[in-house]
Structure formats: C-alpha cells, structure tokens
C-alpha cells in the first residue's frame, strides 16, 4: 500500500514539474510589439523644482509593453505654468513620439 501511494506522489510530482519545461531553440524572430497609446503618471512632484513622470507604453488593447521615466526640471519645469498640454507635448517630444490627429 505504501509503495503504491508513494508512486502516486512521484507521479504527481512529475506532472507538476512538467508544467515548466525550458528548451533551447535556434533563434526565432518575433514581430515587434506596436505602441498605440501611452499613459502618463506623476511619480514625483516637488513644487518649484521638478516632476518625474512614468510613461506606460500600451498596445491597441491597452496591454502594457514598457515603461519609461521622464524627469522635467529647470527651465522646462518653470515653463509649465498651468497648461497640462505643455507637459504632454514635452513628454511626447522627449520620447520621440507624436500624438495622433
């Protein structure tokens, strides 16, 4: 009885371990993901000093592809005023992105 029970445990362990198998393969190129939209989030803001933004790169389905950090300080920060479009356009420019029409 113990041997049979032990065999079931070993079989169960084998099945569980089979859920993750890593195999080396020849290089295979995948299509690069396409960023369709971004989401900007204020990570840190120090008044009269700087703002640090986290920019989330998203695909068309809204799935996260990558994150970038953009720090705005000095003259760029001082030019902000109260127009958030200034920050949006500045972040887009710093990341080499353009807004869709």
Give a description of the structure.
This protein has 101 residues and is α+β, with helices and mostly antiparallel strands. The protein has one domain (2-95). The longest helix is centred in the first third of the chain and has 16 residues, at 2-17. It is built from three helices and three strands; from the N terminus they run αβββαα.
Which class best fits the helix and strand makeup?
alpha+beta
Mean pLDDT: 84
Strand count, sense and barrel status of the largest sheet are: 3 strands, antiparallel
Q: What characteristic shape results from the CA principal axes?
A: elongated
Would you identify the regions where 5 or more consecutive residues have pLDDT less than 50?
A: none
Give the tally of structural domains. Answer: 1
| Percent in helix | 25-40%
Strand content: 25-35%
Instruction: Report the end-to-end length measured between terminal Cα atoms.
Output: 73 Å
In the sheet with the most strands, the strands line up as 1-2-3
Measured on Cα atoms, how large is the radius of gyration? 25 Å
